[in-house]
Design goal:
This protein is an alpha+beta fold and 155 residues long. Helix content is 21%, strand content 54%. Strands 1, 2, 3, 4, 5, 6, 7 and 8 form an eight-stranded antiparallel beta sheet that branches.
Amino acid sequence: MKGICRIGLLFAVLAFASGCAVMRIREVAVMDAGIKYVVPTSPRSMDGVLLLEIDNPSVNFQIDGVDGCVRDGDKVIARFQGGQMQVDARSRRQYELPCTVRLEEGVSLLDVLAIIARGSLASLRADADVHASLQKPKIGKTLEYRDVSLSQFSN
């Protein structure tokens, strides 16, 4: 019986420690964002690479994927998906995230050009679900970011 209690206690401590490590991923901050390149793949979609400056005071982790949308006011104008990337522990550096963007039905390329012509990203907001995981032990978490202003990333 003592052996089972010790094993149970060990698993409880490991689960708590693992949970703390995953929770610390929340401390990670995107300090700056930019676009390395964009390649149109159809009239409604494009592939590209985002440049993300990430400040990570925490442990190594992996981004397993990103799903989200961009809104102009209340109207969703595009949906995006990001690929995978490894984020180094206790670092602040620039990473490249491959992604795909697709315009929503009813949104044209002319609509996007009109938004760009305004010269301000103040009305653009994004929602994103970032799927992150630790390598050892292999556990993951989805971090939700809502109503993020894209103007904070414009120069």
